[in-house]
């Protein structure tokens, strides 16, 4: 006898099992979120507050900013930011041609540190010191070297002229490194130039020979603590083969020279980080950068050098500090909008579909729960952060979810109007509705994917959330909404067409014989 039972009669048992498994999965994911400490949604810059900075490429007269150079800079800056554990930050290029900019958005308190770090071009150069003096401006050269030591230094480096010009000496004396405006760096000098440079703190200024070892000669950079004293941080550099040879030749030559020409200045972005005195040749392929670094300073410098030099020099443009209070207000406004939208959908469902509205309300609650769990877990796993644009995407998803069960309910009612029993109407109506639901959600997924890959800024947050919630809708409508309707169709309240069930003859618009 069991072989003759219609499939629709077995459906409730199967549907009940589906709902039970689905609810257990939600409980399991909730436990996983708690176990991993993902109990709070990570908020983006516009909701949490933080720092936003614009970097403008510095272009020489007649020069051009290429898309390749900007894309490479974005990639390097993003690696630097992520190395600090700020994966929720956003680095994106905007504009076109010579007007292209890089916008960096960093939520939370790490913003200032990242802003100081990412704009460095990381043009590291090793230059022999020709002259050194106090950072303050003087009327004459007032250097710590004599004409004899300058001439000796010049003769020891083939790229230098026979002596240091009076014009260069005059500029050296006039330079005031105590002024912050003269310590902007930027690595605008050519490696082959003899330059005048300041130390980073402005206490010393230098005349430096042409660079003999460059940043691309470095293979590895790491921050380390001096194990002998336990108090001094430095950056350890390992050179590649070519760099090892060049650094060995440089240190071999300067060891026999008088001070300060036996010093090698380590210049980063046009400023002298340190200028150690070389007492013996260094041929092992390693060197140290010292300079009274804190742990943060040394780690920042190592990260900058580790991920390579930016292909362009940048001027820091607009820097915005976004208040957490403003973000909190935006968050509350977004949540309020979502609640109002959800309430309107619930009221409409209960008014129009009556008893069937229970299904729509339940589906929305389940979809909201799954979406919230997704935000928690994705924040833990991939650093997902919820922005105001993301909230907008979540609010739009309420309409997508409502549209799915409306399509199903209307198909079900069409089948019931044609005289089919409720159990049969549920199955045949679902068979026709699911194709429409799938196509509609697939179109939304395509739109979300296109927005995510071709847009920048907050639009990507909207696209990601829209795509995620659309997938949630598909899961909920297939594994909760439809099985729940199947189970309810077996109950007397719905199958008998009670007035409040939403499936009465009046609700369906069916004209009875008495009314005719």
Summed up:
The longest helix is centred in the last third of the chain and has 33 residues, at 422-454. The chain has a five-stranded antiparallel β-sheet with strand order 5-6-4-9-10.
Order of helices and strands: HHEHEEHEHHEEEEHEEEHEHHHHHHH
Total strands: the figure is 12
CATH topology of the largest domain: Multidrug efflux transporter AcrB transmembrane fold
Please report the number of helical segments.
Answer: 15
Helix-and-strand structural type = alpha+beta
Overall shape: elongated
What share of the residues lie within helices? 40-55%
CATH architecture of the largest domain: Up-down Bundle
CATH class of the largest domain: Mainly Alpha
Q: In this structure, how is the largest beta sheet organized?
A: 5 strands, antiparallel
Any chance you could write out the topology, listing elements then pairs?
Elements: H1 7-35, H2 45-48, E1 50-57, H3 67-83, E2 90-94, E3 101-107, H4 111-118, E4 124-134, H5 147-156, H6 166-174, E5 195-198, E6 204-214, E7 218-225, E8 233-239, H7 241-254, E9 264-268, E10 271-274, E11 286-293, H8 295-306, E12 314-322, H9 324-353, H10 357-381, H11 388-417, H12 422-454, H13 458-488, H14 492-495, H15 505-508
Antiparallel strand pairs: 1-3, 1-12, 2-3, 4-6, 4-9, 5-6, 7-8, 8-11, 9-10
Helix pairs in contact: 1-10, 1-13, 9-10, 9-11, 10-11, 10-13, 11-12, 11-13, 12-13
């Amino acid at each position: 006898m069991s072989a003759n039972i219609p499939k629709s009669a077995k459906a409730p048992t199967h549907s009940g099992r589906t709902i039970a498994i689905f609810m257990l999965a939600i409980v399991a994911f909730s436990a996983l979120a708690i176990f991993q400490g993902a109990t709070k949604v990570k908020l983006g810059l516009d909701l949490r507050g933080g720092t936003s900075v614009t970097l403008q490429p510095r272009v020489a007269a007649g020069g051009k900013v290429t898309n390749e150079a900007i894309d490479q800079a974005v990639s390097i800056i993003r690696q630097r930011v992520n190395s600090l554990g700020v994966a929720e930050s956003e680095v994106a290029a905007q504009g076109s041609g010579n007007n292209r900019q890089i916008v960096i958005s960093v939520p939370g308190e790490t913003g200032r540190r990242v802003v100081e770090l990412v704009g460095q071009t990381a043009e590291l150069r090793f230059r022999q010191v020709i002259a050194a003096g106090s950072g303050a401006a003087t009327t004459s050269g007032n250097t710590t070297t004599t004409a004899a030591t300058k001439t000796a230094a010049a003769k020891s480096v083939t790229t230098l002229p026979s002596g240091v010009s009076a014009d260069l000496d005059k500029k050296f004396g006039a330079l005031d490194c105590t002024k912050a405006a003269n310590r902007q760096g930027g690595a605008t000098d050519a490696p082959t130039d003899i330059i005048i440079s300041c130390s980073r703190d402005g206490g010393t200024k230098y005349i430096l020979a042409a660079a003999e070892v460059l940043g691309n000669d470095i293979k590895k950079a790491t921050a380390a603590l001096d194990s002998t004293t336990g108090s001094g941080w430095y950056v350890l550099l390992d050179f590649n083969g070519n760099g090892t040879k060049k650094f060995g030749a440089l240190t071999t030559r300067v060891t026999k020279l008088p001070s300060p020409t036996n010093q090698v200045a380590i210049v980063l972005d046009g400023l002298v980080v340190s200028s150690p005195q070389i007492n013996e040749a260094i041929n092992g392929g390693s060197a140290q950068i010292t300079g009274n670094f804190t742990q943060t300073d040394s780690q920042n410098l190592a990260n900058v050098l580790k991920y390579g030099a930016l292909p362009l020099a940048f001027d820091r443009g607009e820097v915005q500090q976004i208040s957490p209070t403003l973000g909190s207000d935006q968050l509350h406004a977004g949540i309020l909008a979502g609640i109002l939208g959800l309430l309107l959908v619930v009221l409409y469902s209960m008014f129009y579909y009556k008893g069937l509205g229970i299904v729509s309300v339940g589906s929305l609650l389940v979809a909201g729960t799954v979406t919230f769990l997704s935000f928690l877990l994705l924040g833990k796993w991939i650093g997902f952060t919820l922005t105001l644009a993301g909230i907008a995407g979540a609010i739009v998803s309420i309409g997508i979810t409502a549209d799915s069960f409306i399509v199903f309910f209307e198909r079900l009612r069409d089948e019931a109007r044609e005289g089919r029993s409720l159990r049969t109407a549920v199955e045949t109506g679902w068979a026709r509705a699911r194709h429409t639901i799938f196509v509609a959600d697939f179109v939304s997924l395509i739109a979300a994917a296109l927005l995510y890959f071709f847009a920048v800024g907050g639009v990507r947050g909207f696209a990601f959330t829209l795509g995620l919630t659309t997938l949630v809708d598909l899961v909920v409508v297939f594994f909760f909404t439809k099985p729940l309707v199947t189970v309810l169709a077996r109950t007397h309240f719905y199958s008998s067409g009670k007035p409040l069930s939403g499936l009465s003859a009046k609700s369906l618009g069916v004209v009875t014989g008495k009314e005719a």
